[in-house]
Structure formats: C-alpha cells, structure tokens
Write a structure and sequence with these properties.
The complex is a heterodimer.
Chain A (H helix, E strand, L loop, with lengths): L1 H27 L3 H30 L6 H6 L6 H6 L5 H23 L6 H23 L5 E4 L5 E4 L7 E2 L15 H16 L1 H13 L5 H32 L9 H26 L3 H23 L14 H23 L15 H33 L7 H21 L10 H25 L4 H32 L3 H11 L1 H25 L2 E8 L3 E4 L2 E12 L3 E12 L2 E6 L2 E5 L2 H6 L2 E3 L1 E4 L3 E11 L4 E10 L2 H18 L4 H5 L2 H6 L4
Antiparallel strand pairs in A: 1-2, 1-3, 4-13, 5-6, 6-7, 7-8, 7-9, 9-10, 11-12, 12-13
Helix pairs in contact in A: 1-2, 1-6, 2-5, 2-6, 5-6, 5-7, 6-8, 7-9, 8-9, 8-11, 9-10, 9-20, 10-11, 10-13, 11-12, 13-14, 14-16, 15-16, 16-17, 16-18, 17-18, 18-20
Chain B lengths: L1 H13 L10 H8 L16 H15 L4 H12 L15 H31 L4 H6 L10 H12 L1
The chains are: A alpha+beta, B mainly alpha.
Chain lengths: 684, 158
C-alpha cells in the first residue's frame, strides 16, 4: 500500500509537470488539443493524489507501524476517528492533504469553467498544476508520508522510502500516539477548514495570473472569480473560529485568541481575502481597481505560503511551531520565485490595467470601499509586522522582547474600529456620489439607534470608554443594516403592494449579494461585540478548594464536591465535580478534567485540560482544573466568568449563513414570481 | 436637530471618564504582566512555576510598600522586557510603535490622494459624466438613491 501511494505521488508529479507545459504551450499557440491534454493531466493528477491520500488513510486505519508516519502519529488504542484525523496530525500528512485539497478544488473549478473560458482556461490549469507540482515535490523529496522504518547497523532507527545501506525493516509493536492536543473534536475540524481556506486561495490567484498572461483583463474575471474567493473565505473563517473555540476549550487560559504567530498566519490572508471580496465588487460595478485586484488575489495566496513558512519552519517560536528544516529552504525558494514572477507579469501588463472609469466624488460607495480596502491591507501588514518584529528586534538588540496581545490590541484595535465604522457608513452611500442630504436622511436612524444604545450602556453598564466606543460603533452598524433591510422592503412594497414579509423576502432574493453581505456584517458585529465585551469584563480567580469548600466570583459560588477517575480508550481522565450556584439557584455541576495519555507523545507533553463550561447568551461560566493534592481532598482551580462569549460562535454561524445566502443559486423565476399576488388582489 | 444630537454625543463622551479597571493593585498588576515563557498568556492565568513565583513576589513586595511601577521595572530587569507583553517604547523597539502609525497614515494618505486625483480627472475629462453613464446605464446620476430606483425599475419590468 505504501508503494502504491508513493508511485501515485510520483506519477501525479509527472502528470502535473506535463500538464504545466502542455497547458502553457496550448494557451500561447491557441492549440485546443494541447490545452485539452493539459486539462486532462489535471484530472489525472487529481485522481493520482486521491489514490495517494486514500493509501495513507488505509495505512493509518490498518495500524501499519512499519510506516514511519503511522508509527509516529498513531497507536493501537487510538479511536478510529482520530486515526482518520491523524492524516493531518504531522507535517508530511498535512502537506499531502494540502495537495489533495488542491487537486479536488482544481478539478471541480476547471470542470465548471472550462467551456466558458477558452482563453484563460489553459493558463488557470497551468498555474494550478504548477502549485500542485510544488506540493507534490515537497512530499516526494522532503516530507514523504510513505517512508518505512529501518534499523541501521548501529542499532538506531530511521525513516526512508528505500533500504539504506545494511539496514533491516523495523516494525514497532505500537505507535507513539497522536499529539494529545489534537485529540479533540474541534481540533479535527479546525485544520481541515483552515486548510480548505488556505488551499482555496490558490484559485483566485490562478484566475488573476491567468488573466494577466492571457491579457483578458476586462471586468469578466472579477465577476467569475467571485465564487472562487468566497468559498475559500467561508472555509477560512470557519477554520479560524474553530481554532479559537479549540483554544478556548482546551488550553484553559480563559481566552480565545492570543495573537500567536500561527493564529496571525491564518488571520493575515483572511484580511487580504476580505479586502479582495470587497474590491472585486468595485471592479464589477465601476471597472476600477484592476491592478489592485490582481495584486490582492496574488497577495492572499502568497501570504498563506509566507505564513506557513514562518510558522512551520521554526523561525518563530510558538506553541505550534515544530522546527522542520528540510521543507524550509524549498518554501523560501517558492516564495521568492513566485514574488518576482508575479511582479514581472504585472509590470508587463500594466498598460492594460488602467481603470475604465474615474471616481466621481469622495462621498460615494466606491470611495468607502477604497478606504476599507486600504484599512484591511494596513491591518494585514501591521499584523505581519508585529508577528516578525521579535525576530528583527532580537537580531538587532540581542534582547528577547514579546509582541503580544497588548501591542496587537493597541495597534490593530483602532484599525478594526475604523473598519467597523465604514461598515456602517459605506452601505448607506450610493455609487458614484451621494448628496449630503441623502446621507443625512439615511444616517438618521442608525445614528439615533447608536446614541440610544450608547446612552443606555453608559447609564446602566460601564463608563469605560474602550468597550463603550466599540459598542456604539457596532450599534451604528446594526442600525445601518436594519435601515437597509427596511428601506429595501419599503420601496418594493410601495411598488407592488406586497406584505412587508413578502416584500423583504423578494427584495433579498433579487439582491442576494447585497443582503447576504449585510448578514455577514451582522455576524462580524456579533464577533466584535463578543471579543470586546469578554476581554473588557472578564472575571477570574485562582483558588484551591477542600472538598465542600466554596469560592465566589461575579455572583457565582463554586463548591468542590469531589474527584472522579474515568478511563478513556487511550487515556485516563481525572474529573473534578464543581457545583455552581448563583444566589439561591443551582446552575449545575460542571466537570472540568485533566486527561493523562499513556502513549509516548502523551507522556512527553503532560496532561491536557478540558474546561467545564456553562454557557448562555449573557455569560460563560468556565472552570479549569489544574491539579489535586491529598488523594483528591484538595483541588486547584481557576474560575472564569466570560461575558457574551457565546455571541462569538453565534456570529460565526450568522457569517456562514450570510455568505452562503449571497452565493446560493436562487432561480431567477422564484424571485420573479411577483405578479401573481398583485393580480390575485382585487384592485380596490 | 443634528446639532442637538451632536451636542448630546459630545457631552456624553465628556462625562464618560476612564474608570479604574480594578481596585486591587495586585489584581491589576497581574493583568498587566505576561508570562516570560508562554506566548501571550497573562500572569494571572499562567500555570508555569515561574509565574507562581512571580505572583508570590508581587504579593510580598506590594505588602512591603513598593509601587506597581517599581515592581514592573524590577521584573523587566529580572526577566527581560518579555514580561511587558509588548515592546518597550525606547531605542530600537520604538520602531514597533512608530511603523504601524506610519503605515496607517501612509495608507490613508494614499487613499485620499487617489480619490482626489480620480475625482479631479473626472471633473476635467467628463464634465457631463456622459461617458460614464453610457458605460453603466443602470446607475442613476440623480440624487435619488440608485438602489431604490433599481428595485422599482425591476418591479416595473415584470
């Protein structure tokens, strides 16, 4: 099976190389047959990578410990579910998954667009296959998941595909286990969604580069590329939120985001991809920002590669970073090569990238889009700068410094606030120009709404200005969204006489992108409010409690009632039972736990914690169990009350609903069935 | 009307002073210091041995009458600037604070210059904006919101 996987990898590499060459030549010479052959090579490579991936899954599920990767990332006692997810538990497997996803994405996209894009198509295939080739080469030359284990004559073991001089095959009795931190439901989903986002950002890049090569720089590409940016963007958003949820549930420090380099590496391309989603709308509507869009499409892809490089090459120390040097130089070469290649392409096509139209007024939706774009890009670069600054500083001064949450909150915070503000004002501006009167009329309701919320919170909740300002601006956005839904429904109702609900539903169905966008904005507001509120008003307390002893925090009383030992499939859990009461009401018994894993990788890492959580719309009660003494008579805890935390995950759901609504193909006839009710009503 | 709203807003901002976050200097200090070993974990939640010792030391020194600022400075000497969680605002590390500001200002300035130049060109080239209207006929140049107009037009087309 390992041979089959390896041969599939090699053949996929050959097919990719062949497809790059034939597609390029086919595209340049407009030779349909060659181009078709290139496309078929892409399908063939996709099939072969799928075979390799399935082979690795088979080896993992069959517990074939003669394979180095299986022996170091799995064990007999590992539940089937986690044996499946062990595919992305290590570097070689993650890279294979990357290649697999790219193959599937590429095959799906190419099958959709091939007929519609006779000129760009071959170049898109060539770009996709070039990236595919790079990842396959990494798997074949630097991180082969199919390496076997060998005993060398000196008694040491090593992983290699072919027999080293004088070595014998080695099959350990059991594997060393999957990293315990990865044995969590969120951690199974998080890498998959994140990778779907990362890998998917290759698609808009392929569109941009293919448009540059073919010289087809009209607004058509902005229209066609939209869905291929949105889909990865949705996955990336889910991936990031799942990662936060995992950090919140597993790491036990009461927070959801630490501005860790690996987190930043996922957030930076999210920022540029978000900018791209907004700026392609301007190109579609007004034929502007052409250079900007191809640059953003490339940048999002390139920042994914950079992020992967800086976090996975061990340059930056972080909880996630495993130092792996073999892959590093290849990545660096790829980063430099793609950068200069892209620069040369843009330089060559610059004369064709002039805007069709010009801006009419500062007070227009285009200018709001432009400003929000600039802010997204600045936020992305500031975050990147903060992530790498510790290395620069240490190299120059010799002292280790930290660029942590206080810095990021102070620097990124105001930028995000400005973005939120534009999120409120932008949609109220018309394309081209808006008269101040029009703006005033549209702003009246949102401003009144924001002032009402602000006043209410000021009097009832707090006087701290950071949360107050953030809430007020969030309220402004919500007010603007409500207003937009209202006036859309109102004007349709005026014209057709439909009921409010029908008018709203139909106006939404006719303007999916617009209203889908507002729903996404609403989700973002939920997340922003949750983040500000929980960081500003978190309560926490460390306490060691005897059995039946209590501690109180923020109106809650916590009583330690005893310790249980629970066996798991490959670990033992120590579970603390904590009775939580509020006033005279019982909230429930929360059961935070510590898991002790028996496999080698588990013993190396020490126990993992899983918090005990009680959640509602108002606040989370969150308990971390840190250890026990005196035979379980004394437990060490950290208690947290995190206000409005649930809104963050709700915001994620709202965001996905909105983005899906914006993309969902609603048949136009359904939206058009508008006359029937009008006719059905007798004219009064 | 607008003036009244504006006045209300400003006066509300003025009466919203920055409130103290915590009354207890110990709790406050723990929230301002960071674990020297972990990435982005605050001193009050960290489980490392070092942080345990740091917390004890802070308690002792506060009891002995030292000010939070003195304790902070002492910790920077002991463990390095890492405990601040952010780069110190001096020497080379000042760049960490200056460069983001430069980036923001440069980005916004570029956007302002671009919008200015574009709108100036439009005014020169197309005083009647006829060419633009020809390219995008569904966009109203009128003050009426183009979007509402479009909704109505769509309805009429049916």
């Amino acid at each position: 099976m390992a041979d089959l996987g390896y041969i599939a990898l090699l053949l996929a590499m050959v097919a990719s190389a062949y497809g790059v060459v034939t597609s390029l030549i086919g595209g340049i010479r407009r030779d349909e047959l060659l181009a078709l052959s290139g496309r078929n090579a892409l399908y063939a490579a996709a099939g072969l990578v799928t075979i390799a991936t399935v082979a690795l899954w088979y080896l993992l599920i069959a517990n074939d410990f003669s394979i180095d990767y299986v022996a170091s990332h799995s064990e007999r006692a590992l539940p089937l579910f986690y044996r499946f997810s062990a595919l992305w538990g290590g570097q070689a497997g993650s890279l294979l998954l990357w290649g697999f996803m790219l193959a599937i994405y590429g095959a799906v996209m190419v099958s959709f667009i091939w007929r519609k894009e006779p000129r760009r198509g071959p170049y898109i295939v060539a770009i996709l296959l070039a990236v595919q080739f790079f990842f396959l080469a990494l798997n074949v030359f630097a991180a082969n998941p199919f390496d076997r284990l060998w005993v060398l004559p000196d008694g040491s073991t090593t992983g290699a595909m072919f027999r080293p001089e004088g070595a014998a095959l080695f099959v350990p009795a059991d594997g060393s286990g999957l990293n315990p931190l990865l044995q969590n439901y969120w951690m199974v989903g998080h890498p998959v969604f994140l990778l779907l986002g990362y890998v998917g950002l290759t698609l808009p890049m392929a569109w941009a580069v293919a448009s540059l090569i073919s010289g087809q720089l009209d607004d058509g590409w902005a229209k066609s590329v939209r869905v291929w940016v949105m889909v990865p963007w949705i996955f990336l958003s889910i991936g990031i939120l799942m990662g936060s949820q995992w950090a919140y549930m597993e790491l036990g420090w009461g927070g959801f985001w630490a501005w860790d380099p690996v987190e930043n590496a996922s957030f930076i391309p999210w920022l540029t991809a978000t900018a791209l989603i907004h700026s392609i709308i301007i190109q579609q509507q007004r034929g502007m920002l052409k250079v900007w869009n191809v640059v953003l499409a490339f940048l999002s892809f390139w920042l994914v590669i950079i992020g992967t490089f800086i976090t996975r090459s061990g340059i930056i120390d972080s909880v996630h970073a495993f130092a792996l040097s073999e892959v590093g130089p290849l990545f660096l070469g790829f980063i430099i090569f793609t950068f200069f290649g892209f620069l040369a392409l843009v330089w060559w096509r610059l004369p064709d990238l002039e805007s069709d139209t010009e801006l009419d007024s500062m007070l227009s939706r285009e200018s709001a889009f432009l400003f929000v774009n600039v802010l997204f890009i600045v936020a992305a670069f500031v975050t990147l700068f903060g992530t790498i600054f510790p290395i620069i500083s240490e190299a120059v001064t010799g002292d280790k410094i930290a660029v942590g949450p206080p810095w990021f909150n102070k620097v990124d915070g105001p930028i995000f606030l400005a973005i939120l503000f534009l999120m409120a004002v932008g949609p109220l501006l018309g394309w081209r120009r808006t008269s101040p009167e029009m703006l005033k009329r549209n702003l009246a309701f949102p401003v009144a709404f924001a002032i009402a919320i602000f006043t209410l919170l000021l009097m009832m909740v707090t006087r701290r200005w950071v949360p107050l300002v953030s809430w007020a601006v969030s309220a402004l956005v919500v007010g603007a969204i409500i207003w937009e839904f209202y006036r859309g429904a109102r004007s349709r109702r005026k014209a057709t006489g439909e009921s409010w609900l029908t008018a709203l539903a139909r106006v939404m169905a006719r303007n999916q992108r617009r209203y889908g966008g507002y729903i996404v904005h609403l989700g973002i507001v939920f997340i922003a409010v949750a983040a500000t509120t929980t960081t500003s008003f978190q309560h926490n307390l460390k306490a060691s409690l005897q059995i039946d002893e209590s501690a109180s925090l923020a109106g809650y009383t916590f009583t330690f009632i005893g310790l249980d030992q629970e066996p798991g499939p490959n670990h033992t859990s120590m579970v603390a039972n904590v009775l939580v009461t509020k006033g005279n009401e019982t909230v429930g018994v929360l059961r935070p736990r510590m898991n002790f894993y028996s496999a080698i990788s588990g013993r190396d890492q020490g126990p993992t914690t899983e918090v005990g959580l009680h959640t509602n719309l108002r606040e989370d009660v969150y308990i971390v169990f840190n250890g026990w003494e005196s035979n379980g008579q004394l437990g060490a805890f950290e208690f947290f009350v995190n206000p409005m935390m649930l809104w963050m995950w709700l915001g994620g759901i709202v965001l996905v609903i909105g983005a899906t609504f914006a993309l969902w193909p609603i048949p136009k006839s359904a939206a058009r069935r508008v006359r029937a009710p009008v006719v059905a009503q007798p004219a009064s | 009307m607008q003036r009244i709203l504006f006045a209300v807003l400003i006066s509300l901002l003025l009466i919203a002073p920055v409130a103290a976050q915590s009354d207890d200097p110990y709790e406050q200090l723990l929230k301002e210091l960071w674990c020297p070993l972990c990435n982005g974990i605050r001193l009050d939640v960290c489980e490392q041995q070092v942080c345990e010792q740091m917390r004890d030391l802070i308690r002792q020194e506060l009891d002995a009458g030292k000010t939070p600022e003195e304790i902070k400075a002492e910790f920077v000497d002991l463990y390095g600037p890492v405990v601040l969680g952010e780069p110190p605002r001096e020497g080379f590390n000042l760049l960490a604070w200056v460069i983001p500001v430069i980036l923001v200002v440069a980005g916004l300035a570029a956007a302002v210059v671009l919008t200015r130049r574009w709108s100036a060109q439009t005014a020169e080239d197309e005083p009647m904006a006829g060419a633009v209207a020809a390219r995008a006929p569904d966009i109203e140049i009128d003050e009426e919101d183009e979007y509402l107009a479009r909704v109505e037009r769509e309805v009429n087309e049916l």
